[in-house]
Amino acid sequence: MTKLLPAPYLTLFLLIIWLLLFQSISAGVVLLGLFFALLIPILFRPAWPNFAKVKKPHLAVAYFFVLLYDIVVANFKVASLIISKPRTIKPALLVFPLDMTEELPVTILASTITLTPGTVSCEITRGRKGILIHAFSEDDPEQVIMTIRNRYERRLKEIFQC
């Protein structure tokens, strides 16, 4: 079954996208979409890297809500900085040292940093040893590192058990 359907969720996702693009559920559109949705994962499976597997999906859901909360709070913090004290803004570049080396958790962490207003992931260093981060306004870069480590990286390590 895994050779015929190596990525069932991807297959379903591709079929749904196909149907949404054509805005039709006629037999020909569904059959052609199903053909491509089944064929694409089979053809591209050898090129896919072996990503770390989510070991604790319930923690991934909790991570999503933590991130959503942090995005909302960070938006208000950045807005208040811009409105109230634009001259006190202190941009900073810092390197966040990684404890993880798996590709998917590191990518999710870098994306999380970028999604949170006020910080941007600029680069993942060679060997995945660190992430270069630009902070919009930060007095204490060590505090940013500790917040990312305790709030995001620790949770990702639990989700992927790495």
**Structural class, please?**
mainly alpha
Radius of gyration: 20 Å
Sheet with the most strands: spatial strand order: 1-3-2
Order of helices and strands: HHHEHEEH
Q: How far apart are the first and last residues' alpha carbons, in Å?
A: 28 Å
Major sheet: size, sense and barrel closure? Answer: 3 strands, antiparallel
Helix content: 55-70%
As a percent range, the share of strand residues is 5-15%
Can you offer a commentary on this structure?
The chain has 162 residues and is mainly α. It folds into 2 domains: 8-47; 57-160, no CATH class. The protein is 58% helix and 11% strand. The protein contains 5 helices and 3 strands. The chain has helices at residues 8-22, 27-44, 57-84, 103-115, 141-160, and strands at 92-97, 119-124, 130-135. It has a 3-stranded antiparallel β-sheet, with helices on one face. Helix 1 (8-22) packs antiparallel against helix 2 (27-44), helix 3 (57-84) runs antiparallel to helix 5 (141-160) and helix 4 crosses helix 5. The model has no long low-confidence stretch (mean pLDDT 89).
